[in-house]
Amino acid sequence: MPRFAGKTHTAGHIFFYEEMVVIGAIFGTIFSVFYPFFQFYKWIGNSPVWETVYIILGQLFLCLYGFFAGIFVGCLALAIAEMLNSIPIFARRTKFRHGIGVVILFMALGKSVGSFIYFLKQLFVCGGM
User: Fold this and answer.
1) What is the pTM of this model?
2) 48-93 vs 100-120: helix axis angle to the nearest 10?
3) Within 13 Å, how many C-alpha atoms sit on residue 89's CB side?
4) Residue 33: which domain range?
5) Mean pLDDT across the chain, nearest whole number?
């Protein structure tokens, strides 16, 4: 967060950024855990007018969500690139001379195996074992 605030020259708003991240995490958790309570179409009814409104609002929400999800993925890619840039610095400070490539390779393999297990066992369906 501080790095992005520094890049955009908005360091005075860093507490606002951090508060928005926390609020987003809280609302995301509430909406994903208590999702039956946020199915508003069941409260109002299934009239054709409300169905059209929900379709339009759903498309607008998906556009907005896609925009912010893209920003998140971009930030995540930058964070991973930043971590990879810090590995040679760490190796230099700890006098770790040989095998940096092997360490990076095994980090990537660990991520790949973890993703493979995640999708093979379909952990995304139930959220756990």
Assistant:
1) 0.48
2) 150
3) 5
4) 1-38
5) 81
Q: Model confidence at 63, in pLDDT bands (50, 70, 90)?
A: very high
If you average pLDDT over residues 59-67, what whole number do you get? 91
Q: Check: CB of residue 33 under 8 Å from CB of residue 45.
A: no
Note whether 59 and 85 are same-domain residues: yes
Judge if 8 and 33 occupy the same domain: yes
Residues 18 and 53 placed together within one structural domain of the fold: no
In 8-125, which ranges are E strands?
none
Domains of the chain: total: 3
User: Which two tokens mark 79?
Assistant: 């964070």
Assess whether pLDDT exceeds 60 at residue 128: no
Residue 17 has pLDDT above 80, yes or no: yes
**Which CA distances in Å does 93 have to 89, 100, 101, 104, 106?**
6, 13, 16, 17, 21
Are residue 51 and residue 92 in the same domain, yes or no? yes
Q: Are 108 and 100 in contact (CB under 8 A)?
A: no
In this structure, what DSSP letter does residue 99 have? -
Q: How confident is the model at residue 41 (pLDDT cuts 50, 70, 90)?
A: low
- Residues 90, 110, single domain; the answer is no
